[in-house]
């Protein structure tokens, strides 16, 4: 986890330096709210129109994107970084959709950077997706890891 902390410090310091609003989401957000599972990557949402600004500063670490990715569960603007072995997925905050396999419908995720919750992650106070929004989108995705996160976040 020490490498994840170093990576998180690097990327969040860079986002702050560039005045790019962001929120921590995904598994790291779940961990911030008490989930116990292993961290796979660092998920961060930023405004879609800030990708080019960030891209210039992280060029050496980009392994995907930024480009639109549409797969079974996601339709989003995505850029993936590999910072010395730690993966970072940076997603567009305003155009991300997730697929609900129960209803066969795509759902638009709504990000409001004014509603983030400040949580301590590795001793850093960072903006995190609100718990209720995290639970809601993980319930829609309903992958095994999401179900596990939701169960832990509700208890």
What would you call the quaternary organization? single chain
The total tally of domains equals 1
**CATH architecture descriptor text:** 2-Layer Sandwich
Elements, N to C (H/E): HEHEHEEEEEEEHH
End-to-end separation in angstroms reads 24 Å
Rg calculated over all Cα atoms: 15 Å
Shape: globular
Helix content: 25-40%
User: The biggest beta sheet, please?
Assistant: 7 strands, mixed
Summarize the structure.
Helix content is 34%, strand content 34%.
Notes on the structure:
There is one protein chain. With 155 residues, this protein is an alpha+beta fold. The chain has one domain: Beta Polymerase, domain 2 (2-Layer Sandwich). 34% of the residues lie in helices and 34% in strands. The strands form two sheets. Strands 1, 2, 3, 4, 5, 6 and 7 form a seven-stranded mixed sheet that branches. A two-stranded antiparallel sheet has the order 8-9. Strand 4 (74-83) and strand 5 (86-92) form a beta hairpin. The chain is globular. The mean pLDDT is 94.
Topology:
Elements: H1 2-17, E1 23-25, H2 26-32, E2 42-46, H3 51-58, E3 62-70, E4 74-83, E5 86-92, E6 97-100, E7 105-108, E8 117-121, E9 124-128, H4 131-141, H5 144-154
Parallel strand pairs: 2-5
Antiparallel strand pairs: 1-2, 3-4, 4-5, 4-6, 6-7, 8-9
Helix pairs in contact: 4-5
């Amino acid at each position: 986890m020490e490498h994840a902390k170093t990576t998180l410090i690097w990327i969040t310091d860079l986002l702050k330096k560039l005045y790019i609003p962001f929120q921590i989401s995904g598994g790291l957000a779940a961990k911030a709210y008490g989930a116990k599972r292993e961290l796979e990557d660092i998920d961060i949402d930023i405004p879609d129109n800030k990708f080019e600004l960030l891209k210039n500063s992280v060029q050496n670490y980009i392994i995907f994107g930024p480009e639109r990715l549409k797969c079974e569960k996601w339709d989003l603007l995505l850029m993936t970084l590999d910072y010395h072995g730690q993966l970072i997925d940076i997603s567009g905050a305003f155009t991300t959709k997730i697929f609900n396999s129960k209803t066969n419908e795509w759902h638009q995720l709504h990000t409001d950077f004014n509603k983030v919750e400040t949580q301590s992650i590795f001793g850093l106070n960072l903006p995190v997706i609100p718990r209720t929004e995290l639970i809601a989108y993980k319930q829609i995705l309903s992958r095994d890891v999401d179900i596990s996160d939701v169960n832990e976040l509700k208890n």
